[in-house]
Amino acid sequence: MRQWLEADDILEGVPADATDQESRLGEALWQRIAANHPDLPEGEAFRGAGAVPAEPKSRKRVLLSMGIAASLMLCTTLLILTEWPGRLFRAAQKTVVVPNAAKGELTLADGTTVYLNAGSKLNYPEQFGRYERVVELQGEAFFDVARDTDRPFRIVTDRTVVEVLGTAFNLKAYPGEEQRLEVVRGAVSFQSSSRKKQLAVKAGQSASLDDKQAIQYGSPVETESPLWREDALVFKNNTLKEVANVVERLYDVKIQFQDEAMQNLRFTGKFTAAPLKTVLEDIGYVLKIKHSASEKQINFYQTNN
User: Among residues 248, 246, 293, 252, which one has the least CA distance to residue 267?
Assistant: First the structure.
């Protein structure tokens, strides 16, 4: 409106004669109004050149229309700001990073407790919005979610989305590895980020997503809490590469292989609060391979013996 009123061409043809300047300026203004409001009946805008509007009702009707439009815009803005604040503004985000050979625990604003495994990162808001609770996970975490039927709790990873109302479960989502969900209490919606397939996973059940985006149910959950929280390592027919990924995070080391074929060897075993040396020796004994260690570098190799 201000730009329209300040336009230079609105005063074109208006003389500087003080005796009729006001009426001519009024004529120019109302001509502009008539041009921008074609719905006004012809002849109602003016009586003639240089005259003020013929019908006061016309001027009131135009001003009233403009006032109603402005009021509607104001009401709409107020409605958006009051009803959908969480959708317009993102709350301040925080990030917790747990390094290798460490674990972390925190409580979110809604009362949800999160236990983070080694090499994990969690992004979360200081305060959740009115309609949903969303966090982002990279790594592994056990969630004990505070129940809130009005605000679903969502965990977003690089390849999956988990949604719950109030439950307890473990989610493993390290980059480049199979993602696995284990539900201890309640029920969880588990789906790929492409949303092509969705599973309802109940207490005692598990599900996984592989590197080909295939999502499926897995083996039953046998414990009420992930074993990693008790400093336990459990491997069930895992590849040596998968075992190495876990060992690297838990003991903050780097593992290399003599050749790629070694990575496909399968290992089954369980360790509880075991030192790195014990873990490496047991792996070597079962798979009949050797290892060498230099500071934080571990090398697996095979011999001809």
Answer: 246
